[in-house]
Design goal:
The chain is of the alpha/beta class. The protein is built from eleven helices and six strands. Helix content is 53%, strand content 11%.
């Protein structure tokens, strides 16, 4: 039987990260210094140490996304769950805002007319925000596919992609396509991910600033 640890509420997160560091060390895993805060927060939100192996970062990804946020970039998510999880007060302190257009009535109508997903149309709407944008995709591979198409066609170039959709259909292929572009990214290769992971990555960046 596991021993119960009696902790004050404010001590629980600190203790969780201590356990994560202990277990990483016990597994012989040494995270790159600039990536460590992000990867550990994803492990914290998922209790899944496989992320230490499957989270991949493009060259200079962490300083790039930090600089974007510090200079007022917005964050666009593909789910309201991810939107709810992002620390919007912290983001606003840098002049940025978080958006999710999935529940937008115009997006829903256009998606129905075109027989495409709302996530796809949401990305098109986000491309017209007219300011630097970080895309945090935790659910819909069609969002990643559309961002890649827009980039390939020269219509739009995302400033940064957090690509961690979870699932089975087109999930792995969509992530691989992003990694073949010149878009800076943080991607979780394979099928795992989710809105909670997308929000955790955003928050890890925000908390490090």
């Amino acid at each position: 039987m596991k021993n119960i640890e009696y902790l004050l509420p404010e001590e629980i997160e600190k203790r969780s990260f201590e356990i994560i560091e202990e277990e990483l060390s016990g597994r012989g895993i040494v995270l790159p210094a600039e990536q460590a805060d992000i990867t550990k927060r994803v492990i914290h939100t998922s209790a899944d140490f496989e992320y230490a192996r499957t989270l991949v970062y493009s060259e200079n990804a962490v300083p790039i996304v930090k600089e974007l946020i510090q200079h007022g970039a917005d964050i666009v998510t593909d789910t309201n769950m991810a939107l709810a999880g992002i620390n919007k007060k912290k983001l606003a302190g840098f002049g940025g805002a978080a958006h999710c257009f999935m529940a937008d009535s115009e997006v829903a109508w256009e998606a129905k007319q075109r027989h495409v997903t709302r996530a796809l149309v949401s990305m098109e709407k986000a491309a017209n925000l007219g300011k630097p944008t970080v895309f945090a995709i935790g659910n819909a591979p069609t969002a990643l596919l559309r961002l890649c198409e827009l980039t390939k066609n020269g219509n739009f170039h995302p400033d940064f992609i957090i690509g961690v959709p979870v699932g089975f259909v087109n999930v792995e292929a969509a992530k691989e396509l992003v990694m073949e572009t010149d878009i800076p990214y943080i991607i979780n290769v394979g099928r795992k991910g989710g809105s909670n992971v997308a929000a955790a990555i955003c928050n890890a960046v925000l908390y490090a600033l």
